[in-house]
Design a protein that fits this description.
This protein has one domain. Helices cover 72% and strands 0% of the residues. It is built from five helices and no strands. Helix 2 runs parallel beside helix 5 and helix 3 packs across helix 5.
Length: 165
């Protein structure tokens, strides 16, 4: 019998480059999303002077969380989750950037303020569901896969394969 190779030691998360990129990007993205929930209604209030329109902007900023999680879950199950998460962040950047460009040009309208608010929450809901699927669904699904040499479904409670008889 040959010596069995030593088990690979897991890399600590503080040294895992992929985790650090994901965590850093998510932290910045979350900060921006949470700030925009306050900023959009205040922007509309400053532009229009109407508390009702500011309330509509606040509602538009939450509507995606009510309508989009179920379809987002279907997308997350059928497509590459990493690509979905990157696309969601790119869409959020474009939406917020459109407000910045319109503000710089001095031509922000009420509809221009509402559209990115709604788009950002739809994308944020998709991002949240995709991230959840990546952390919960994939490990559970992968845990159910058999490894070579592992007992099959006919194994008894002790984990041994049944004797041929």
């Amino acid at each position: 019998m040959g010596a069995e190779p030593a088990a690979r030691q897991p890399v600590p998360l503080r040294r895992n480059r992929e985790f650090q990129l994901l965590w850093g990007g998510q932290a910045v993205s979350l900060l921006g999303s949470q700030t925009s929930k306050i900023a959009y209604p205040l922007l509309v209030l400053a532009m229009t002077g109407s508390p009702a329109k500011a309330g509509i902007a606040g509602f538009a900023a939450m509507l995606g969380y009510l309508l989009f999680p179920l379809p987002a879950g279907g997308l997350a199950d059928r497509h590459d989750r990493k690509r979905i998460m990157i696309t969601c962040d790119a869409i959020r950047l474009a939406a917020v950037g459109s407000i910045a460009v319109a503000g710089w040009a001095g031509h922000i309208t009420y509809v221009q303020a509402l559209s990115p608010a709604a788009a950002i929450t739809v994308v944020a809901a998709g991002m949240a569901v995709t991230a959840l699927a990546a952390t919960v669904v994939a490990p559970v699904r992968d845990a159910g896969r058999r490894t070579p040499g592992a007992p099959g479904p006919a194994a008894d409670a002790a984990g041994a394969a049944p004797a041929a008889g």
